[in-house]
Every structure is written in structure tokens, then in C-alpha cells.
Amino acid sequence: MVVIVRLLLKWLIIALAIALTAELFTGIEITGGFGSTLWVALIFGLVNAIIGPIFRFLAIPLMVITLGLFALVVNALLFLITDAISSNLEIDGFWPAVGGALVIALVDGMLELLIDAGD
Q1: 3-state SS assignment for residue 93
Q2: What is the DSSP code string of 17-67?
């Protein structure tokens, strides 16, 4: 039961991070209400879980050379794949995707620290 609650909380955190990203960047737009944001977060989570490990494995040499900064590019690519899959998300190019990936990673990381501190 705790695993399901944690998974739902993680989904909500990603949805909030994506909503914040759409507010901060003019090149990122979510059409629809919060339900659409939840849908985009679900797709992003699935893309991250299925395609993300493959991209990260293939990018290990570049991550080593860039001291991990290339992970931001990988996350931006995953965000762009989410855009291609979802009709509710619109990203206008690579650089807004990089900024969005950075904001999502920061918000997700900070909220995960708060959740872990509560456990």
C-alpha cells in the first residue's frame, strides 16, 4: 500500500513540476486543465521509465566527459518525446525542452527530499 501511495505522490510531483515549467517558459504549453497535466505527467513518467534507461546507457561516455551535464540533454530529449506522443503538450524547440527538463529535475529533486525527510 505504501508503494502505491508513493507512486501516486511521485506522479503528482511530476505533474506539478510540468505545470510550473509550462508557466515559466513561453515555449512550453499545456492545453487543457489539470487533468491534461496529469496525463502529460503519466506519459512523461512512462517515457522516462521505458526509453530513459536506454538513452542513459548509450549516453554514459558523454555523461562522463561532461561530468553529468549531458543527463540534462537526455532529459530534454525524453521531454521532447513526450511532446511527440501527447497532444496536450507543445514544446517549441530544443532549448525550451532543456529549460523544462532542468526545472522538472530541480522541482522533482527538492520535493523528493521533502518526502524522504518525512519518512
Answers
A1: coil
A2: HHHHHHHH-TTEEE-SSHHHHHHHHHHHHHHHHHTHHHHHHHTHHHHHHTT
Q: One digit per residue, pLDDT tens: the chain, 119 residues?
A: 688 888 898 899 999 999 999 999 999 999 988 999 999 999 999 999 999 999 999 999 999 999 999 999 999 999 999 999 999 999 999 999 999 999 999 998 888 888 777 66
CA distances from 83 to 65, 69, 91, 95, 104 (A): 28, 22, 6, 14, 15
**pTM to 2 decimal places:** 0.89
Amino acid at 107: V
H helical segments located in 60-93: 60-65, 70-85
Q: Enter the C-alpha cell of residue 116.
A: 524522504
For 51, the grid coordinates are: 526509453
Measured CA to CA in angstroms, residue 91 lies from 48, 62, 73, 94, 106 at distances of 17, 25, 15, 8, 19
